[in-house]
Design goal:
294 residues, alpha+beta
């Protein structure tokens, strides 16, 4: 419990974006290196941390929150069975050395899966109502050739070459300070001044000099609509909307949370004694877990 509490508090302080599992996208991932991969010496050290750390948010508080979520969760019995099966599959996959190294048993493993499932449910609940309509234009991805230079002198030389009719790719390979000439752009990827011009260009069109904060861009439009990439980007936009809605709730939680962490003590905690025989990395990839919870 001690090292579980410490990991929770550490993740909150570092704003991992979740206090439980996937809710804040990584708390379980942050807990596991301590809980699942903690050697005996580190476990003993962690037992004393609670005394040195001023902790107001306790591990029990997290567990109580998870229990409250479970009360409103559909098919709780099925999730319980799923957690049991997932825990057994993962636990049985561990070698004797790994079980000893982690210091966990089947019941603890089951609790990890239950907590993560409840965390997923909370995340889903908090992101309900997100607008799922994404237009082709909002998600549009274009393919371009680009030139970037950092000085006005270089920009003038590039503009002169463009005006003379020199092939854009040749100019780019000669002057551009970017590592690649051809690239794709979605809204939000580039400075606003660049996107305002690039997304209004026709195929084959070449822009004039585009001043930005630290230099100058030149754009040639290769394709003003990359259909497959645009469809894929719609999913990215929905994920971003969900995160934004969730972060509104999370930021309010952080603002009102009461906790004090002794960073000096926490920084002294290290995972030592890691052996090459410890290979497990499939906690989140257990087949039964995936089918029941994701």
């Amino acid at each position: 419990q001690t090292y579980y509490r410490v990991a929770v508090i550490k993740s909150q302080v570092e704003e991992i974006r979740t206090i439980i599992g996937k809710i804040f996208e990584g708390i379980i991932a942050k807990i596991l290196p301590v809980i699942l991969l903690a050697v005996n010496s580190i476990r003993k050290a962690l037992e004393g941390l609670a005394v040195k750390l001023k902790i107001d948010i306790k591990g029990e508080d997290v567990q109580d929150s998870l229990s409250n979520i479970a009360d409103g969760m559909e098919n709780v019995e099925d999730k319980e069975k799923g957690a049991t099966k997932a825990a057994k599959e993962y636990f049985d996959s561990l070698s004797k050395e790994e079980k000893s190294f982690m210091g966990i048993d089947l019941n603890e493993t089951k609790q990890f899966y239950q907590n993560y499932a409840l965390a997923c449910k909370l995340y889903s609940t908090l992101t309900e109502g997100v607008n799922e309509e994404v237009s082709d234009d909002e998600a549009r991805v274009i393919r371009v050739e680009q030139i970037y230079v950092s000085t006005s002198e270089m920009a003038d030389k590039v503009q002169t070459k463009i005006d003379e009719g020199t092939e854009f790719s040749i100019i780019a390979n000669t002057f551009s300070q970017l590592s690649s000439v051809e690239t794709t752009i979605a809204r939000g990827d580039y400075p606003e001044a660049v996107e305002e011009i690039a997304f209004n260009m026709d195929d084959g069109e070449v822009s004039q000099m585009i001043p930005v904060e630290n230099g100058y861009y030149f754009i040639k439009c290769i394709s003003r609509f990359e259909e497959e990439l645009t469809e894929a980007n719609k999913g990215n936009i929905l994920i971003r909307r969900e995160k934004e809605q969730f972060n509104d709730v999370y930021e309010a939680f952080v603002e009102n949370a009461e906790f004090v962490l002794n960073d000096e003590v926490w920084d002294e905690v290290t995972l030592e004694g890691y052996e090459s025989s410890i290979q497990t990395d499939s906690f989140f990839m257990t087949i039964i877990f995936m089918s029941f919870f994701l």
